[in-house]
Amino acid sequence: MNGLLKSRLLPVVLLICTAGTASADPRTDYLLYCRGCHLINGNGVPPDVPSLHDELGRILSVPGGREYLVRVPGVSQNAMTDKELAAVLNWVLAEFNADTLPRDFKPYTREEVAEARSKVLIDPLRYRAALLGK
Ligand code: HEC
């Protein structure tokens, strides 16, 4: 292989290698783990898959709501680590819900996510309705 070819190939090989590593940035993790259902822009496919826009801020401000966002099966049951999951949730909230986030909102931590995701929600829709009094 001549030097020119090597210098052109190396960046491509490096890119392919780093693209395959487990931990990515939250946006990439969203695209990998959430987009399949909630779509690239977070709009979902209502009524089957809820939108991730605006309403989450409201849910955060009712008792139990903060935990609920971690406990829904699409969040709690995916393959991400607790740390990655906390980062994706914080990204979704900042990206899609900036207007409705409570003023005193504190980002999710890895420990909080670990605790909440261990409590699997069997019937998320009913739980959500009770939470929001609907
Ligand atoms: C297999 C499809 C699927 C995937 C993948 C998925 N979700 Fe969901 N998500 C749903 C459905 C369906 C609901 C409604 C509750 C239910 O029936 O589980 C929901 C509910 C939610 C809710 C609650 C919204 C509300 O208004 O009550 C949040 C937050 C959420 N998902 C975030 C995520 C995030 C973040 C990811 C990626 C880590 C993700 N979801 C991956 C299908 C999915």
Polypeptide structure, described:
The longest helix is centred in the N-terminal third of the chain and has 17 residues, at 3-19. This protein is mainly alpha-helical and 134 residues long. The protein has a single domain (23-132), classed as Cytochrome c-like domain (Cytochrome Bc1 Complex, Chain D, domain 2, Orthogonal Bundle), CATH 1.10.760.10. The protein is globular and about 70 Å long. It starts with a helix and ends with a helix. The protein is 58% helix and 0% strand. It binds heme C (HEC). Heme C (HEC) is lined by residues 33-34, 36-38, 49-50, 52, 55-56, 69, 72-75, 78, 88-89, 92, 124-125, 128.
Keywords, please?
9 helices, Cytochrome Bc1 Complex, Chain D, domain 2, mainly alpha, 58% helix, 134 residues, binds heme C
CATH-derived topology: Cytochrome Bc1 Complex, Chain D, domain 2
Supply the helix-strand structural class: mainly alpha
Which residues sit in consecutive blocks of at least 5 with pLDDT less than 50?
A: 14-18
Mean pLDDT: 88
Order of helices and strands: HHHHHHHHH
| Helix content estimate | 55-70%
Form type: globular
Number of helices: 9
* Domain module count: 1
The first-level CATH class name = Mainly Alpha
Assembly type: single chain
